[in-house]
Predict the structure of Leucine-rich repeat-containing N-terminal plant-type domain-containing protein.
Amino acid sequence: MWFLSLPLLVLLFGIHATLASGVCPSDQHSLLVQLHNSLEFDQSKSTKLVRWNFSADCCEWTGVTCDGGGPGHVIGLNLSNESISGGIDKSVAISRKKKLVTLDLSMLYRPGVPSLKLEKPNFATLLQNLTQLGELRLDGVNACANGNEWCQALSTSLPNLEVLSLSNCFLSGPIDPSLAKLQSLSEIRLGDSLQNASLKTLVLSYTNFSGILPDSIGTLGSLSRTELVDCKFNGSLPISMANLNELVYLDFSYSTFSGPIPSLGRSKKLMYIDFSHNQLSGEIPSTHWEGLLNLAHVDLGCNSLDGSIPSFLFAIPSLQNIHLSFNQFTGRVPNIPGVFFFGYPGFE
Ligand SMILES: *[C@@H]1O[C@H](CO)[C@@H](O)[C@H](O)[C@H]1NC(C)=O
Ligand SMILES: *[C@@H]1O[C@H](CO)[C@@H](O)[C@H](O)[C@H]1NC(C)=O
Ligand SMILES: *[C@@H]1O[C@H](CO)[C@@H](O)[C@H](O)[C@H]1NC(C)=O
Ligand SMILES: *[C@@H]1O[C@H](CO)[C@@H](O)[C@H](O)[C@H]1NC(C)=O
Ligand SMILES: *[C@@H]1O[C@H](CO)[C@@H](O)[C@H](O)[C@H]1NC(C)=O
Ligand SMILES: *[C@@H]1O[C@H](CO)[C@@H](O)[C@H](O)[C@H]1NC(C)=O
Ligand SMILES: *[C@@H]1O[C@H](CO)[C@@H](O)[C@H](O)[C@H]1NC(C)=O
């Protein structure tokens, strides 16, 4: 389950660009002409719509992609950065392009500057029949919908979606669990240009999300609980995690993260840290964990951490469990009255 309202969250991946040409069928041609005529756009800034030549094959128009075989279908529509304003209410030309694989209406978001607005059709209606869509980019388009509406529209209409980019779309959270139905989803962008991202809980456990955890996680200043258990992420943990001041619960266990553990000294509210069963290495400098006076649970077991045993942890009064086993720490566990150690090399 994910809960969110408009943070910057970017999860990466490959994009399949389908480029081919075909012959534009007349119904597709007239739908595009209809769309063109219904859109309000700034002629002086347009580089695509302004060049559409209605006498030519629509598959050759800038921003239009057709598939190669047979009579040709319009499978891609890219009107990004076309300074479109107003609505697309006079035409539902886009929602009738059932073969669309790519739809990009993204535009540069400038606060106060009118942008394309999804009202009639709204977000859900626009996408209703676009069941083939693999890539949807509506950045900067005013889609204004709550978590329930936009997530369910995506999950019921777009089963093949791989890439979703909806930054600055005036969407609000929480993210509805139905989004988990989108099994092919590999890239999600849901940012906004407000400084204060309000995502509080990020749970991506037991998913196949892979690649590098993006630096932008550090912009989620309200993040309090993050669980990435048994994901396919690899590479280093972003240093930007040091900015997560509100973090309370952090479980990144059973993944394939490598490299050092970033400084968490500013996350003073941290109570629970689990980095166990990764491939983390390096030392744990005391300065990285200074002042974490709420820590109750620390599990760093089954990694390749080295340097001296982080004995400063044992001095944190709130600490109840500490697991450091199966690492390459050196030195002795400090002798603390009332603390019992079980077994070796594991101890608790
Ligand atoms: C978008 O359009 C503006 C002009 O309206 C132009 O300055 C800018 O370079 C364009 N950006 C992209 C990515 O094409
Ligand atoms: C538009 O396309 C037609 C048919 O291909 C062509 O004859 C004509 O020159 C084109 N017009 C412009 C302005 O490019
Ligand atoms: C749409 O066109 C722009 C150039 O105007 C390009 O940067 C962008 O990658 C294209 N989008 C897709 C999904 O191919
Ligand atoms: C989607 O397709 C159905 C059945 O063909 C049609 O009745 C409906 O109007 C379409 N919706 C849109 C928004 O075009
Ligand atoms: C961000 O949050 C801080 C503290 O909660 C608040 O003072 C500030 O006005 C917020 N900024 C924006 C752009 O909402
Ligand atoms: C992850 O991928 C594996 C192998 O491709 C597949 O068996 C598994 O069902 C996937 N898990 C999820 C949660 O999609
Ligand atoms: C992460 O995994 C990908 C794909 O499995 C691989 O290409 C890449 O080299 C890995 N990166 C690291 C730092 O291990």
About this structure: The chain has a mean pLDDT of 84.
